[in-house]
Amino acid sequence: MLETRQLEALAAVVEHGGFGPAAQALSLSLAAVSLRIKALEERLGQRLLVRGKTVRATAAGQALLAHAKRVRLMEADLLTELQGGGTARGTRWQSLSAAVNADSLACWFLPGVAPLLQRHRLLLEVVVDDQDHTHGALKSGDVIGCVTTLAEPMRGCVAEPLGVMRYHCVAAPAVAQRCRTAGGAVSPHRLLAQPAVIFNRKDALQDAFLQQHFGLAQPNYPRHFVPAIDAFEAAIALGMGWGMVPEQHLAGRTGLVEILPGATVDVALYWQHWAREPLSAQRLTAAVKAAAGKYLSRHAPPLA
Questions:
Q1: Whole-prediction pTM
Q2: Which candidate, 271, 204, 187, 287, places its Cα nearest to that of 244?
Q3: Pair (64, 118) in one structural domain
Q4: How far apart are CA 133 and CA 122, in angstroms?
Q5: How many Å separate Cα 8 from the centre of its chain?
Q6: What is the C-alpha end-to-end distance of the chain, expressed in Å?
Q7: Mind listing the pLDDT tens digit for each residue in 159-203?
Q8: Which of 87, 119, 210, 267 falls 20 to 30 Å from 113 in CA-CA distance?
Q9: How far is CA 194 from the centre of its chain?
């Protein structure tokens, strides 16, 4: 049997980013935390942490962290059941974690899961990353599920299709006009002469748009980086450049026009989660799938 206190020490070191903060969170001495980690590593015969300026878990450490999260959730579910169910006012708050891309978080994820969190007294920790990278947080054991573009299930996980987020290339009218020839056609050269507004350096939607609709493979063009949804869309509306905006955000919005009407980029999303989920995690999965079914376009499976 694994020692619970040793698992708690391992989780605390990773979650708090070091031995000192972990010791403080656990109300232990630094030596006590170090001894627990050392004993766990000796028992398993392998390193669980990579020590340096930042502390991170090894592959074995990541597997143990995922196990520790499952144990925590199962214990919390059991306590809730013993106390009379998840809607009782006196039920303890319980924490869940998920990795979500910023657009999904703003468009449909939070509206979809908010009623569940309130009903069952669940606390949600959201890790925000690009949809092509969120699965890393699930692999490392930091979260119990993620919204991702990765269709292939990771080890011990299930990947369920959620639907498609459709993106339009938009700009303020003056910027869009500068991208056109005298005859009104969109000129790729004029478009690339205008700055793009990009969420962050992991965001590849603009490159996907240029590749799909103009056949341009990773061309050079000026870029603004604005890593906040409201500020990102405000930057486009202010005429700083052109950018890719989810269809849901454009509904009823004025002041933005499409650069190339009807030309979109579709991003298929999946919910990757543990194959063996505690009850609270099962509820989150059900809420995420229901929200996606309500807000996202239907996902067409790839051709065999």
A1: 0.79
A2: 204
A3: no
A4: 25
A5: 25
A6: 44
A7: 999 999 999 999 999 999 999 998 889 999 999 999 999 999 999
A8: 267
A9: 30
